[in-house]
Amino acid sequence: MYLVDANVLIEAKNRYYAFDIAPGFWEWLEGAHAAGEVCSIEAVKTELVGRADDLSAWAQRNSSFFQSIDQATTAHFPALSAWAASRTFTPAALAEFAGNQADYQLVAHARGHNLVLVTHERPDPNSRKRVKIPDACAAIGATCMDPFEMMRRTGAKLRLGT
Predict the structure, then answer these.
(1) Are 45 and 66 in contact (CB under 8 A)?
(2) CATH of the domain at 131
(3) Domain contains 21
(4) Is residue 57 one of the residues assigned to a domain?
(5) Range of the domain at 70
(6) Domains of the chain: total
(7) I need a surface site. Which of 3, 7, 91, 95 has the fewest CB within 10 A?
């Protein structure tokens, strides 16, 4: 199963899969969720719902897409925190990562449930100013990929209507 970062949904809405030009993406996403292939977490929904836009409305209509955090997730918080603290991140980067509930929880949730975390972020092991999701995933044994690879692996086909 694939676990979607907020930036995947936001970028899709703002750019290549806008609701008015590519409704098939959103239909595919809903179908993939119904088939048990794709989900996200409630902290991502929280990031999306206050925006008063199409994505906010979509998130509210599809609340089952967003899973709750559970003990399997929180069990990985100590290892994730220890890894981040052992690196050369700035105090501001550490505070943002721990304070950014979504990124921190996404990484732990992916590891705790053996999900593949899907994000547009790229690894940057030398980063000091920001904890990157792919680096955090690698550190605690979670898998990470971009949304296009997820779509290929799930067999997504977005076809234009006639």
Answers:
(1) yes
(2) 3.40.50.1010
(3) yes
(4) yes
(5) 2-154
(6) 1
(7) 91
Q: Considering the entire predicted model, what is its pTM?
A: 0.92
What would the pLDDT profile of 67-114 be if each residue is shown by its tens digit? 999 999 999 999 999 999 999 999 999 888 887 679 999 999 999 999
Question: Cα separation of 154 and 157, whole Å?
Answer: 9
**For residue range 7-48, what is the model confidence (pLDDT) as tens digits?**
999 999 999 999 999 999 999 999 999 999 999 999 999 999
Q: Are 84 and 98 in contact (CB under 8 A)?
A: yes
Please indicate, yes or no, if residue 98 is contained in any of the structural domains. Answer: yes
Tokens found for residue 120: 């547009």
Tell me the angle at which helices 42-49 and 6-14 cross, rounded to the nearest 10 degrees: 30
> Under DSSP, is residue 20 helix (H, G, I), strand (E, B) or coil?
coil
Domain-located, residue 162 = no
141 closest CA partner among 118, 108, 119? 108
